[in-house]
Design goal:
Number of domains: 4
Number of strands: 8
Order of helices and strands: HHEEHEHHEHEHHEHEHEHHHHHHHHHHH
Strand content: 5-15%
Radius of gyration: 29 Å
């Protein structure tokens, strides 16, 4: 929303230097902006005479000053006699607009994604507790809440759980959940213009909310203008005590080309990661899924799947569904370990041979960097970290000799390849975040 007071004070400062002191003190100073209607700033004068004198003596000065400080196409001065009818019309229109905004922002959160259906384990107990605290007291604690973790670990589940909780317990709150891609596309559309797609409409939508949730914020990387707009949206909401919840596949400082001031804003709240679930949690997730979907599965199947799939919850649940389906088409009431082995036998066999290009493409996709930069000479951290990860994964997933690997990265020698390999291998042992990144990229490679 426009800050009428600050903007109007700036208008007064400009006009005061353009008109006589008598004109300013007697007529202009008494004007009061009250609202914006259809791109027109409505200004209240204290009398019909004041209205006429302002238009006669300083209409052009007001027009220029208002254009510089308000996002409007024109202005209109009304008298006290006109205000009553106008106020009723404006009130009805604004009520309709607010309802329209709430309706537009309203989305259907997945009813299956609730706090009750979220399986809590050592890998996610802190982020779960933080998410519940935010849902119960939006805008009061952990603002912003920044959740990050690999693909399929439960970030979206928690965001929908927060949304479902708010809808059930605080239905009057205006809540909006969007992906970063949706936010970016809406912003681009607002710049192009068109019916109900102006920058004012965009800001009205995203800044007139009580809770803003943005998923996959990492895709704001390299989008300078979108970052600028999101920065101001963030500030507007945060300063007004509105809750902001952000999800990403990596922490703020690891998002390439993210502006320092956005990194700083994200770090001003709580940053919490979701790690890959341990064996016990994976078994619990499978049992919960079986209960929800009424699958009949022997306990040995849960253990088999939990051992086989250790990084991605979606893949874990998908494999369970496949086993259940396999048992069903063979007219079995319970899925057995044998059914699981047969149902997933194609996935157990060796994948197609992985080559260096597969790894490089997956790393570029994950870190959102250009292939030419990754394999080139750039030495900034945003490129060096992905490059070292790519080199490490190639040494692990292929049989290429070190010299050949170096040729894929601008002709680097084997000692450089060894350094990158050993550095990432060491970090994986000591840093769970690095281990998660490596596993996430492996999943991307296997699905290519």
């Amino acid at each position: 929303m426009q800050n009428f007071k600050d903007n109007w004070n700036e208008v007064l400062n400009i006009v005061s230097s353009e008109v006589t002191t008598v004109t300013f003190d007697l007529w202009v100073k008494t004007l009061e902006p009250i609202t914006v209607k259809d791109g027109c700033l409505i200004i209240l004068a204290n009398s019909e005479t004041a209205k006429k004198r302002c238009l006669e003596l300083c209409e052009s000065e007001l027009k220029l000053a208002i254009a510089d400080n308000f996002e409007v196409d024109s202005f209109k001065i009304i008298s006290p006699e006109e205000k009553e009818d106008f106020s009723l019309e404006t009130s009805n229109r604004e009520n309709v607009e607010i309802e329209n905004i709430k309706r537009e922002n309203s989305i259907s959160f997945n009813p299956k994604y609730t706090f009750e259906s979220f399986v809590v384990g050592k890998s996610n107990e802190f982020v779960y507790a933080a998410s519940r605290a935010v849902a119960e007291n939006p805008g009061k604690r952990f603002n912003p809440l920044f959740i990050y973790g690999g693909v399929g670990l439960g970030k979206t589940h928690l965001m929908h759980a927060i949304g479902n909780y708010l809808r059930a317990n605080m239905p009057d709150l205006n809540v909006i959940y969007v992906t970063c891609e949706k936010f970016t596309n809406d912003y681009i559309d607002s710049l192009r213009g068109g019916k109900n797609k102006t920058i004012s409409n965009f800001r009205e939508r995203y800044r007139n909310v009580d809770v803003l949730m943005v998923d996959d914020i990492q895709f704001i990387s390299n989008k300078t203008e979108t970052q600028e707009e999101f920065f101001h949206t963030f500030n507007d909401l945060h300063q007004n005590g509105k809750q902001i919840i952000i999800a990403s596949d990596r922490p703020p400082q690891d998002i390439a080309t993210l502006s320092d001031r956005l990194v700083s804003r994200f770090k001003s709240g709580l940053i919490q990661d979701i790690q890959s679930p341990d064996f016990e949690t994976r078994v619990a997730i499978l049992k919960r899924k079986a209960l929800e979907e009424n699958y009949r599965v022997e306990d040995s199947v849960y253990n088999y799947l939990a051992e086989k799939i250790n990084t991605n919850i979606r893949e874990l649940e998908g494999s369970l569904a496949k086993v259940h389906f396999y048992a069903g088409i063979h007219c079995k009431h319970f899925a057995s370990l044998e059914d699981a082995e047969l149902a997933l036998q194609d996935e157990v066999t060796e994948k197609e041979v992985i080559n260096a290009d597969d790894v490089i493409n997956a790393v570029c996709k994950y870190y959102n960097v250009d292939r030419s930069d990754l394999t080139g000479k750039k030495k900034n951290k945003e490129i060096v970290d992905p490059r070292q990860m790519a080199i490490y994964l190639i040494t692990e997933l292929t049989d290429l000799p070190l010299t050949s690997i170096g040729q894929n990265f601008g002709g680097r020698d084997h000692t450089t390849v060894m350094h990158a390999r050993d550095k990432i291998a060491s970090e994986i042992k000591s840093n769970s975040r690095t281990k998660t990144i490596a596993n996430d990229i492996k999943n991307i490679i296997l699905k290519q």
